[in-house]
Write a structure and sequence with these properties.
The protein is mainly α. The protein is 74% helix and 0% strand. It contains 3 helices and no strands. The protein is elongated, with a radius of gyration of 15 Å.
Length: 72
């Protein structure tokens, strides 16, 4: 795949199939559970906020990995 094709693929909507939808849900549920654990076990602070933000970023990056089927 040349760079133009890769760019086209990276910036194209990839509708999820049934398997991918289940993967997205599992990742969101796991991240949500961990976010609640983080909130319950750390003090309210900029670091806590940053950790939740990074967890959200992690979910989004995993979603991209699923949508692109590991090709990125």
């Amino acid at each position: 795949m040349d760079l133009k094709d890769k760019i086209d693929d990276l910036f194209t909507y990839h509708a999820p199939d049934a398997t991918q939808a289940a993967q997205y849900e599992a990742i969101r549920q796991g991240a949500k559970a961990f976010a609640y654990i983080a909130l319950a076990n750390s003090p309210t602070s900029a670091d806590q906020t940053a950790a939740i933000r990074k967890l959200r970023e992690c979910v989004m990056t995993l979603n991209a990995a699923i949508a692109l089927k590991g090709i990125s």
